[in-house]
Amino acid sequence: MRMLTCLLLWLSLCTLTSPAWGAFDHSHADWNQLLGEHVSWQPGGHESKVSYAGFKQDRPTLRAYLDRLSAVSQAEFNGWNKAQQLAFLINAYNGFTVELILTRYPDIGSIRDFGLVFNNPWKKKFFTLFGREQTLDGIEHGIIRSEGGYNDFRIHMAVNCASIGCPALRPEAYVAERLDAQLDDQVLRFMSDRTRNRYDAQREALELSKIFDWYGKDFAKGWRGINSLPAFLAQYADQLADLPGDQQAIRSQRVKIRYLDYDWALNDRQ
Questions:
Q1: Which three-class secondary structure state does DSSP give residue 155?
Q2: How far apart are CA 25 and CA 180, in angstroms?
Q3: How many CB atoms lie within 10 A of CB 135?
Q4: CA dist., res. 187 & res. 265, Å (int)
Q5: What is the pLDDT of residues 45-62, one digit of tens each?
Q6: 155 vs 44, 116, 138, 215, CA distance in Å?
Q7: What are the pLDDT digits (tens) for 188-197?
């Protein structure tokens, strides 16, 4: 009896003194491994393709990872630093999006096949987060983009809607200690992709992804000293155009902007 009491006391002390006891894995190791195996950069490194067939084979591992995300309480989440929180939220959005696609794969050609009114994939409550039913829109707009939240427009190049028109799904998990570098890299890859963002010299206009149309106001909140979409675009003049005169036109922040059609086809690696 005395031995049992001592054992219980020791376990209690370990729980109180070790922050790693049962702590959430901020390396997102399982998600990182799944992404490394089933997502690959395409030539040029501007877009990636996803092997949903491969994810389907490893679906138990994916579900176990998502269950660990769902097990995190609001209080535990609130105790993390901002980088840990944001990495968690981006990984959650991307992971649950892949899981949603798998519910109908291979009989699906676009995430929009779920429906835009009834069964809307972004408004569908199909998972739990912080003890309540949640949606993809709830993560992106209700938490990440909420006023006083994270105020980081780079998230638009990180959350992935399983579509070709979307910025690439990164073949690694987002992690707090490298989050800034990962997000900067995502932006650079996206802005260097002339199929999505480019300067048309004949029209003297920038042709941009619809993402900038939908979320343009997020680039006007003063983060990193950027207070407008043209000011953001000016920083990527070299990626958007080749000729010095065209680059200077972009830096002037006075060029016209046109938005390209969005490709909603599934970003599947057949």
A1: helix
A2: 19
A3: 19
A4: 21
A5: 999 999 999 999 999 999
A6: 22, 23, 14, 11
A7: 999 999 999 9
